[in-house]
Design goal:
The chain is mainly α. It has a domain at 71-229. Helix content is 53%, strand content 9%. It has a 3-stranded mixed beta sheet with strand order 5-6-7. Strands 1-2 form a two-stranded antiparallel ribbon. A hairpin with a 2-residue loop joins β5 (250-253) and β6 (256-260). The termini are far apart.
Length: 313
């Protein structure tokens, strides 16, 4: 074989060998990368699972702590919490517009009403809630929830929606509801704790949803008077009637019924079915709405406006 031909064959063999070695190296690298990725994936999945377990465990402990601290009332108690400061702030900064929606003048509230609101909240957190009778307890928690919601808005104002106040812990949380923002009887609690564990958990009354306000247009009105134990039944019924008979609660166009998202999110509080929701709505419907609901057996859709209930909008 002549030298040029031999050299060419030798070069071809060397090139092929290098290619084979490169392919083997790349394959080994890919195996290592895949192994590393798999190990990392298992690690993060285990970590994620641990966090979920920890969150559920913490939630269970918190629920137990709330049970110990706040369940139960003194039926014989004549203690009355003074909510006149809160009512004064409501009458000053909450006004109804032409559509029946109570809007808040957050700009003026922040400038002149924030300090007295903080003082009111500070005094509420010193109350021994278990010494109250049941109606006074409900009024206490509803006023505390609404006053703290306003205070959170003022601390971050101007905002377009309460959901932009992203202070809750957790990767998938938004809004302020899960952050521990209050301390009552030595227990740190969130707005969610008040609404879901205490009010919904202890009182089991669907009218709770007309009492707590999330600072949104779609929400039932923030009342212009404070809740009190003496007037509670009257106030809850008034709130239910006002919302049910507003287009934010129920809107009918032809045979299409659109209800507030509240009735979908918390359907378990309204009979756990559309029929149960409609039964609840009919209970508080005025004559005109009741007539238009005749023969209606289902809800076509749900809607909710999270825009801030700001008087400047």
């Amino acid at each position: 074989m002549d030298r040029p031909m031999y050299q060419r064959k030798t070069q071809m063999r060397q090139t092929q060998t290098r290619q084979n070695l490169n392919e083997q190296s790349q394959a080994q690298t890919l195996v290592v990368q895949n192994t590393t990725s798999a190990v990392a994936l298992r690690y993060y999945l285990a970590l994620f699972a641990s966090l979920i377990i920890l969150a559920f465990a913490s939630g269970s402990l918190m629920a137990g702590e709330l049970e110990d601290k706040f369940r139960g009332s003194d039926k014989t108690s004549s203690i009355v919490i003074d909510h006149t400061r809160w009512e004064g702030l409501l009458k000053t900064y909450v006004k109804q517009d032409g559509d029946g929606l109570n809007r808040v003048n957050y700009a003026a509230f922040k400038q002149m009403g924030w300090k007295p609101l903080k003082a009111y909240l500070g005094d509420l957190q010193k109350v021994d809630v278990k010494k109250l009778n049941r109606d006074e307890q409900f009024a206490f928690w509803a006023n505390l929830y609404n006053a703290k919601t306003i205070e959170i808005i003022l601390a971050h104002y101007p905002v377009k929606t309460i959901r932009d106040i992203d202070i809750s812990p957790g990767l998938f949380s938004n809004g302020p509801w899960k952050k521990k923002v209050l301390n009552v009887s030595g227990v740190e609690i969130s707005l969610d704790d008040i609404e879901h564990k205490i009010l919904r958990g202890f009182f089991k009354d669907p009218r709770i949803h007309y009492a707590v306000n999330c600072a949104s247009i779609g929400c039932p009105n923030l009342a212009t008077e404070a809740f009190t134990g003496a007037k509670l039944e009257q106030q809850l019924n008034a709130g239910a009637r006002a919302y049910v008979n507003s287009p934010r609660g129920v809107l009918i166009k032809g045979r299409r019924v659109t209800a507030s998202g509240i009735y979908k999110w918390f359907d378990e509080d309204f009979g756990n079915s559309e029929r149960g929701v409609l039964t609840h709505i009919r209970k508080y419907a005025d004559a005109d709405l009741a007539r238009r609901l005749e023969g209606v057996n289902d809800i076509s859709g749900y809607d909710y406006d999270w825009s801030l209930n700001d008087s400047r909008r």
